Fold this protein.
Amino acid sequence: MRVLIQRVLEARVDVAEETVGSIDRGLLVFVCAMRDDTSSQASWCARKIGAMRIFQDDEGRMNRSVTDIGGGILLVSQFTLSADVSRGNRPGFSAAAQPDQAVPLLDVVAKDLEGMGIPVSHGQFGADMKVHLINDGPVTIWIDTDQPKGGSA
């Protein structure tokens, strides 16, 4: 999975000039399910998102999670995070999961976040969405489950 997390003061998603999802302070999370992703990867992403300490504590250090601040998550599917730009100037998206695989994986992420007690709002899968946000910081974090994990060599 590829996930782009933005810390926001507020965010909303409009489809056909109607708001379909919104949050106040919290995280705007763009998610792309990739072709070979599994539900365990989706659950891992949800746990990582929910526990990530990227909100400031009383001393101004990034030491609080979205749960700690009582924030929400706006979850938006975004297949373009799968873009392959290694050849030519037109991105390829063939690595993205097909809708019949992607939707259940996004549902796993949402249900797991909700299971952590985090209010989750949603975009609309496959729709032409207009995303409005006020980025806080800005703070933007990238997660890719296919990237090598840190550690010593």
